[in-house]
Amino acid sequence: MTSPTSLTAYVQAIGLRGPGLEGWLAAQRVLAGVAPYLPERTVLPAANRLPPAERRRVGAVVKIALAVADEALSQVVPDGAGIPTIFTSSGGDGENYNVICSTLASDDRALSPTRFHNSVHNAPSGYWSIASGDRAPSQVLCAHDGSLAAGLLEAFTQLALDGGRVAVVAYEADYPEPLRAVRPIPDAFGVALVLAAAPDAQARFKLTIALVDSATDALTEPALEALRLAIPSARALPLATLMARGETGSCVIEYLPGSSLRVEVAPCS
Fold it and tell me: Containing domain of residue 161, as a range?
């Protein structure tokens, strides 16, 4: 049954990075069918906006989150600051968890404090605040494979209640063995959307969301479909494809068991 309630927001900016997709402009060409998809390891830019001490301490999960947040938010405000954010990930820093678990299982159990503060789920949000000087409110979510949909629901709800703008940032980084055996995330992927409650000159797409019990949408390109299935934040690819092509249409994104999120897309011009 389709939920009787829908929520609407307007996309002002997009950031995207993943395997073979180095930023939204490159991804747009691939998803629109203009350029072929060439699967390669995700290129993670250095977190250059962080002070040197913090920059040395961050791993892949922070780098991917900051890369897409910066790409999207810098399109609407010069330094990316002042806009509330929602960071959402299915698991956080798997590489760091692996080091912590390996250390605790060894004879030498001394852990660096840096390992601890990077292990908390809100680390990327905190580093974004440091990098941008952003003191706007930030929410941090986790809903396993439905984390992207959870982030979108939170963003649209905030806009419905408070108006203004909000950025939702969904991200993952790969898990090393032996964690990968039970959580096989193979690479980093991130997507960020700056959303507004009302249309203005910066609005690029109108999005309308509703909870449904429909099956999720797949991609026709086998390699991109494999990527969508392998990395939870890459569940955004059907939505990104509609926007890359400038199409009016809809897609269904995975949420919780028995519930999915339908997103209707319409270009603003």
Answer: 10-200
